[in-house]
Amino acid sequence: MRIHRNFPRLIDWYILTEIASPFFGGLAFFTFVFLMFQLLRLAEFFIVHGIPLFQLLQISGLLCMTFVPFALPISYLIALLLGFGRLSSDSELIALKSSGISLPRLTAMPALLALVIAGVSLMLNLELVPLSERALKEKLVAVGNSRLVSSIHEGTFNQGFFDLLIYADRVDSRNNRMEGVFIYDEREPKNPLTVVARHGQWTTRSERNGGTTATLLLREGNIHRSDSSQGSYQKIDFGEYRLHLKTDPGSGGMWSKPKMLTFEQLRKAIRDARSNIGAQRILEGEFWRRIAVALAPLAFLFLGVGTGVQPPRSAKSGFGLVAFAVLTLYYTLIGAGMQLNESGTLPAVLSLQLGNLVMLGWGFWNFRRSIR
Questions:
Q1: Are 244 and 212 contained in the same domain?
Q2: Residue 179 lies in a domain
Q3: Most buried residue, 157, 216, 293, 308, by most Cβ within 10 Å?
Q4: Are 98 and 92 in contact (CB under 8 A)?
Q5: Are 213 and 225 in contact (CB under 8 A)?
């Protein structure tokens, strides 16, 4: 039988259409599932904090961006299982093999797609995701600071709020207002302050370094001050009193987390941490973790094709269980690799590739068995 010279090219496009639909469907589904885990948090922003819908959509978009690198390899694996599973169950693979198209030849287009997905994932992991993580954290801090009163529960003493003890009879979280305010300020232990006021109003202002200055405007109250060293007591009545409080995210903490560093920032941090072996291992682990997750589609290629052409009796549910088992094993190995790197047992370049190496070995074995 004579095969048209464009037949292999048509087959490539046919394979692409078979796996493209479940890939994009899986990408949308898994991103949505990951976002649902944050649903209560988003609802709190909208209902309690009263943030605008547009700002809520911005936060949701940034959250989705942080999920995409994890959804890409999952979606690719599902696409291979479903695409080749359908070809196998409908006996189309047998027809293609009888036409002289081997299984390795059918893998050409999925391999090209794996390279494209790996490249996109690498770009996301090294640049866009860290920027999204930082932008997301900045927005969450801005939302929290702009609705400071929402974290104060009326009728109870609230501890740890800017290192103050605060009580309010009534709280209006939408307008950042309080009524019947009691504040105990012990930031200077030798001269603690007790402030009582009828009304309180919070305002915030962003600083250039990313910090925030919060001001509590108190009206119609008095200040009680005691000096234990001198045994004195002082009471000051006021019409208005401003209490200035400041947070400085640039000083470290959550703003220096490795996952928020871009490629160049991470490389610089690794070089600067040479004197601190523990910190250097953590940073190197983060760098190679991003590389490993980006390369996951390539590691799943032969496993997905080899398993897909041997569909279980109930293909969809069976493939779902296979995908779940593969992903559980994969991310368990990634976590084990992080531990091996941080303990110094294996270097990061090797320990973080354990998941990919195991998937490649399993995939080659399964793929060769399918060819036979």
A1: yes
A2: yes
A3: 308
A4: no
A5: no
- Together in a domain, 209 and 232: yes
With the C-alpha atoms ordered 318, 320, 323, 329, is the resulting torsion angle positive or negative? negative
DSSP character at residue 313 = S
> Tens digit of pLDDT for each residue in 172-231?
776 778 889 898 887 777 778 888 999 888 776 655 555 566 778 889 999 888 776 677
Q: Write the DSSP assignment of 340-363 as a string of letters.
A: HHHTTSS-HHHHTTHHHHHHHHHH
Closest CA to 82 of 253, 323, 265: 323
- Tokens 């998941």 sit on residue: 355
Q: Is residue 184, in this structure, part of any structural domain at all? A: yes
Residue 345's CB is within 10 A of a number of other CB atoms, namely 11
Distance between CA atoms of 149 and 165, rounded to whole angstroms? 13
- Whether 23 and 138 share a structural domain: yes
Q: Is residue 165 classed exposed, middle or buried when 0-12, 13-18 and 19+ CB atoms within 10 A define those classes? A: middle
Predicted structure pTM score? 0.73
As for how many domains the chain has, the answer is 2
Domain limits at 193? 151-253
Burial (0-12, 13-18, 19+ Cβ within 10 Å), 140: middle
Could you tell me if residue 2 is inside a domain? no
- Indicate the length of the chain as a whole number: 372
Best CA proximity match to 262, nearest among 294, 287, 295: 287
Residues 238 and 334 in one domain: no
